[in-house]
Design goal:
The chain has 208 residues and is mainly α. 42% of the residues lie in helices and 8% in strands. A hairpin with a 3-residue loop joins strand 3 and strand 4. The structure holds zinc ion.
Length: 208
């Protein structure tokens, strides 16, 4: 598992120029002129994070809205760090949404931190994840430190237990459906066919 991002995104001169020309405050983040920069950040950080969300360590998706650029220190609180390389990491939309704009600094700052001491959650660039959070069976999160426990709370990582259960339920339902369909194709027993159709209708709620 990737423990932390070893090198941040490195902005190119023309990207820095664009930011300097077009960025005033954090709401400018959504301007389309920055789309190219955002894509470049995602492309750069994906392999550096092993394609995992920096908070829950679940795999990141590839469709739009399946990966977010996360501002570790909320950009609404410190808009000057909206494009700070060490403030950018990739997260799943679930973690990003739950974390929202909740404050993560223990004391206010005038310069971006260079280590994780003043940051109350696991900082993707400064902190080794495994020192703060241990993950069991993919979806049980154990906080090993105050930082780890706060990350679990802020991002609501406990939600993933339910997500995993739903995934497993859906998969077992899929398997049952596939088995029944295979049997239906083969059986010559009309009574059994009717039983299978009934079972399928119960499983899919759309037959009959
Ligand atoms: Zn996540």
């Amino acid at each position: 598992m990737t423990d932390r991002i070893l090198s941040p995104y490195s902005f190119k001169a023309q990207e820095l120029q664009l930011i300097s020309d077009r960025f005033v405050t954090h709401t400018d983040w959504s301007k389309s002129c920055f789309d190219g920069i955002k894509q470049a950040v995602k492309n750069d950080l994906r392999p550096k994070q092993g394609n995992l969300c920096c908070y829950c360590k679940w795999e990141l998706g590839f469709d739009i809205k399946e990966v977010d650029i996360e501002h570790i220190v909320p950009k609404s609180e410190y808009s000057e760090y909206t494009f700070h390389p060490n403030n950018l990491s990739l997260s799943c939309p679930g973690c990003n949404t739950n974390k929202g704009t909740k404050p993560v600094l223990s004391v206010p700052i005038t310069a971006y931190p260079t280590d994780g001491i003043n940051v109350s959650i696991v900082h993707a660039h400064f902190d080794d994840y495994s020192q703060h959070i241990e993950r069991h069976a993919d979806a049980i999160y154990e906080g090993l430190s105050p930082k780890g426990r706060r990350t679990i709370k802020l991002c609501k990582l406990d939600r993933l237990k339910d997500v995993l259960k739903k995934m497993k339920d859906a998969k077992s339902k899929d398997t049952q459906i596939a088995q029944l369909v295979a049997e239906l194709v083969q059986t010559k027993d009309t009574q059994r066919s009717d039983e299978i159709m009934l079972e399928l209708s119960q499983l899919t709620e759309q037959f009959l």
